[in-house]
Write a structure and sequence with these properties.
about 250 residues, mainly alpha, 10 helices, extended
Length: about 250
């Protein structure tokens, strides 16, 4: 009998570490505490916050998807389609999807790290001249990218059907819910920050990088002071450039 040797990825191991009860540091093996320590040493601020936010979202008490019986109960409360009492199942499914989507957004608003993430995103938006109204919806789509209509499948699935049917009209078969107009720039930045943080965390976990002291990370690299000769040469070039700009030009023959 073959054994499944697949190990959880770096993100999955961090999420499990956030829910671990034993955070003892063992020098002979890698444990949950090592993942938490590596996440705290990541230099990318936004990437570090996203690590915590993804873990919170995974552990959040999200509403389950309604089953067929619950949808039928909703349809029984709606007006019938004809005189024979046919249930409006299409409208009932739409209401079930909309209700679950609202509940997921309310769950997103309760995340502890959401405020810290939006604060950093606000600073970035000011420097990049990005509409701040795009930040929170894009952050939510980063955490929950799956289309709420087809559950990320790309095609609709009929009840008790063994296979998928027609293409999802909400996501056009992509399985991913589209972000608001202009939110692609924010989403690309979030993914870049998460990728950099994951790479830094992996380098720290597997000994491919040394930990930079906090004082050096805050201060940054110290450039050597310029010599007097270099400073004089730079000043001379600047004066010559300014003289050429303000030199009166001869007009006409």
């Amino acid at each position: 009998m073959l054994e499944n040797t697949d190990r959880p990825g770096l993100d999955e191991q961090y999420i499990m570490a956030t829910n671990a009860s034993d955070l003892t540091v063992d020098p002979d093996r890698t444990g949950p505490a090592d993942h938490l320590i590596a996440a705290g040493l990541v230099g990318n601020r936004m990437g570090s916050i996203l690590i915590h936010l993804v873990g919170e979202w995974a552990a959040a008490d999200k509403p389950p998807k309604l089953g067929e019986q619950e949808i039928v109960a909703i349809a029984e409360q709606l007006p019938r389609l004809n005189g024979k009492g046919k249930l409006d199942m299409k409208r009932a499914r739409a209401q079930a999807i909309a209700g679950r989507a609202r509940a997921l957004r309310e769950c997103y608003l309760t995340l502890t790290s959401r405020g810290a993430a939006l604060a950093i995103m606000g600073e970035w938006a000011i420097r990049r001249d990005v509409d701040p109204d795009l930040l929170s919806p894009t952050l939510y789509r980063y955490l929950a990218p799956a289309c709420p209509v087809c559950d990320g499948l790309g095609n609709m699935k009929l009840p008790d059907a063994p296979a998928l049917c027609k293409q999802c009209p909400a996501c056009n078969g992509s399985g991913v819910y589209a972000v608001a107009l202009g939110g692609d720039r924010v989403m690309s930045w979030l993914k870049a920050c998460a990728g950099k943080a994951k790479a830094q965390r992996g380098n720290l976990m597997y000994g491919r990088a040394e930990v930079t002291p906090m004082a050096d990370r805050l201060r940054g690299e110290i450039e050597p002071e310029q010599s007097i000769k270099v400073a004089e040469a730079i000043a001379a070039v600047a004066r010559e450039s300014m003289d050429n700009v303000y030199k009166p030009r001869k007009i006409g023959p």
